[in-house]
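Lecture notes, unit on protein representations.

Consider one protein chain, 257 amino acids long.
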Amino acid sequence: MCRRGVWIAWLTLFSAVSWGADTGGVDTAQNDAANAHPFVTPPPLSDPNAELVDRPLPGTKSEADGSFAGENGGALTPYYVRTGIGLSFITNVDYPDFGITGSVDMAPGFATGVMLGTQFHDNIAFEIEGGLLYNTVYSNQAGNITATNMAQITNVQLFQVPMMGNFIFRTDPLGATRIRLVAGGGMGGIFRQVFVTGTPNNYTESQTLAAYQGFGGIQINPGEPDLMVDVQFRYLNSITGQSVPSMSIMGTVTIRF
């Protein structure tokens, strides 16, 4: 073989080896799934759709339609239960409806309540509330109170049980924060009962009246999507019968279900 033939043979062999080893071309045999060429495999997160998919935060509750709480403007499940406890304040014990007269203030008592509601709008809810407010006179002022057929008064206890339907309005003036302002009010009925202790005999009086209430405060989300904490100032009074202004400061906890 001549020198020219030798060079042609070497060029042919070199070309064959080069084309067979090039894994960046269209030779799929050289670019299988187990030995993919780095320039052929798509880079991580190169799919634009994968980058735009929203994922729920840890602890977020899924909805029935596959969405999650907080996906649509912070929406929560519609139904909730709320309960709370606090302090009750009443100005005086001058209650002619119960045959009691006096100008002394009552000692701070306690207030508690349970509410069942539905959040039918992002900022509006309706709930049914039942509660209890209890107050008694200061022990050292009971002597200034008089009552029908009583020679001496040693204690007066007032129990109030409201049953109300409330509308609650929530606003978010601070934007995307965990704090909201809450205000609302309702109407219904109130059951009042007075226990009078003294001589010659103790006695009890009660009445049921139409009533109303108003309240306002702040609501805080402590980080759980289905949990809210409220601190509210509340005012309760009867529409008919004797006016007994009742104020309370109550802390409540709301749980969605």
